Amino acid sequence: MTTQNTDKVADFTTYLYEQGFNTVCVSGDKKPIGSWRASERSDKPPRCREAVAITGNYFADDQYKVAIFDIDNPNTKILEEVFGEDWRSYLCGAPWSFCVLTGPRPKHLVQCEGEDCTIYEDKEHTKPVKQVKLSELERGIAVVVRVPSKCIRGDLGTSRNPDVEIIYSNYQVVYGKHPSGVFYQPVKWENGRWVSVDAPGAGVVLSCEEFWRMASAVKKQGEQKEEETEEKAYESPKAWDKEIAEPNVLLALLKRWWALTREDGSHFHDALTFGIASLAWRYGIKKESIAAVFEELFKWAVEQGLDTERDVAHHRGVIDWVYSASAERRRWGGKKLREVLTEVLKAEKNAKPAELEVESVFSAIFKALGLKERRPEDVAPGVLCVPTKWVTDGYGNAIAAEWLCNTKSGIVLKRFKKNTKRKKKKEEGEEEQEEEKENSEKSLFEEVVLVDMSISSLTVYTDVLTGREYVSADVMFGRDGLVSWRMKPKDNFISLVEKYTQSRTSPRWRPILNYYPHVQDVIISGFFCPNPDDPRLGKLACGVRDYFYAGIRDPDKPTAKAALETTLSVLDRFAPDATWYKTAVTSWMHSLAQVFVLTRKVWTIRPSFVVLEGPRGLGKSTIGQLALHTLFPERADDLFIPASGAMTAARLGRLLDELAAGVVVLDEQKGVLHRPEVMEVLKSMITSTVAWKTAWGEKWPAAAGLVLTANKFVVTDPEVADKLYKIQFSGAVDPAKRPEFATAMAKVYNIVGDFGGYYLHYAERNWATVKDAILAPTQAEAAERYAKIIADELGVSIELVPVSDLTAVSAAVTPVDIFRDLVWRELKQQMAAIRDGADAISAKHAFNILLDKGRIPFMRKYSGDETNYMILKNIELYNGELSLRSLCEELGGELYTKSHKKNLYGACVVDGVKVEDVLFPEDAPEEEGNDPA
What's the pTM? Predict the structure, then answer.
């Protein structure tokens, strides 16, 4: 370095010393010369020759401390987020600013001589890349600021991240020669560019809030990459249309916390603003509504001297960011806001708060915002409190006086009470003991245990099709440990909990269920893709659901291909002939396509159920089981209803309710379509999204497709027959090989779920491509087309029985069938009006009520003998194909010719028992009552 440059460094060192800085001499490689301390300086300025640095912490005026922002990345967004877009002008544009351009970028890879610079590939500068001018390169920036001494409490270390370092207990070189060969350049920001200055000022004075906001931003960015790898952005609401329910309560809470500081003197302003704005954003609160509360707060904070107008401008920018940034950007969830509230309460109490205290203020914010049910990220494990009663304090602020809390020791009601105990009068000068204070504080509240259980986790699921609610929960009982329920109907869950705990207390605990996370969806296991034009379902996701833990897999393509090839190989190996193999593969693929029944219904494209028909022993049941293991490997046994279990409406209803999945197999159900009550449920399953057991009027989801197997299907109701198609089996596996076949299929059942998962997820991920196939005009066409798409995608060859060779299920309709159908139509239409005050009545009871009241237009009781019924001639008007004379003969009745009354003449008088046997066959008893818990 020349003598001239040496003199400049020495003079600049003296200038900085006289400005009030603590100066340190450094060598050309930025190493300090001699000993130094950041907290104090020598009696006179040192004589620096190569370069000079200043330290953080010390400033001659005791009102201030010095900090330096060492900006390694000039393009960082940190300063813009903290100080606004004009940060260069704010920090470096004033007469008293102190800013310095440091080394060129890329850092450590540039070497300069004057204005000529070389960029190298390596830090050792052995592999040059290109030659450039210094003016073409970006440079680092050092910004010196002053902070009021009151902002700093205790020792403050250095905060850093890859972009910015805040230097407080260390030093920063500000003048002399940089190791890259360039000279540090004091500058100011003028007219949108950097301009050299000879004598910088002592640095802009920041407010406490600005300084700690900067420190927080630097630290936050340093942790951001790690956080982003662990957590995804929270899902945005469908709309921001809610108003804050109690803005005054929220304002009172914020005022209560706004003046608090951490031990180091920093406020919680930024954290509270960002955290509560994030909460409001995630729950659809209008920006205008949350901003109005904060504007009142900002006005008050400026009056109290807690914020400056510039601080307020920044806080407004925080709210703007929360509401304007893309949904993929991270807002805070409950975990982060709880951490802030924990710090806030610690500062307020000067002691670490209990978990329940944090939860209480967290839920108070929810209450003020008007929020009820919480999202999963806002429920802490084992802890949730809901304020149930509010009172007004002496300042007009609403405070919670009663809480309903789930705690780790049980569900309790915590309420405020006045301390009725008289305090012992203290002797003059006597200090109140800490124990007395603590007891007095405790006596302000009382706790009543409502239920001796603690909810570890709980989610309520509401099916948008039926309104039915289910609960998945982990509950800890004091004596019996953890009990888990998965997708239990909510009413059953409540009954089981209360029975299990044998609690005789008031059931006031139940409202707390409303505050746990809720999911509104089509609650099934299987595939569902809604029509976007459907006003009720259109906004639901298209894809695969597994709410009932059916074990739906998500394999890769090679695994799915291997499972498909293995299954086809086994079927081929044991096939008695090529026709049987082709029929078996066709039946399997058409059974799988039943998983699309609900999707077809909501797109108003008629689905059909598939029937596998043929004598026993041909493999129909095996194919039905194969389909279930393919789609739902964990629940296949539950969804297969064997011939040994007679199907009733009650059983079918519970199946639909508690095992709501995309496909159910009814195996060899003799007469299942001849039971009117079951038939009505099945007809509803085909035609609508809701099925119900008529005698109870109770809705069940009709989300499942059906696979039915039987020796011979003859349907008495044309409406049902029209919505079924059958695949005819012939040929049988060699009886001698059946044990080996069963063993081979058992192994296939273990792997075929890999193909089933691919079958379902491919539709989810390629809906636009496969939509036309799945929504083909007929169910059979949809099954064939989608099966070929999947097989082609996996590169596996399959041959199916052509759709044109599949046949309809035959319908044998008799006068009695038509009569039964007409009566059941009346029952369906009038059931809701004839409950007769009972919670549940049988279909037969309902029929007799209607008959007694004359509500069946084509029937009445016979006045001569009430054990007989009269079927009137006008029944022929309800179905043109029905002949009353033929019906009367089939029922064994007699035509009534004794009266000349037009409406009675020619009626059929028939034994009432015979009529009821026809309408309500008792070949299988109803299964009422609840399944075992």
Answer: 0.62
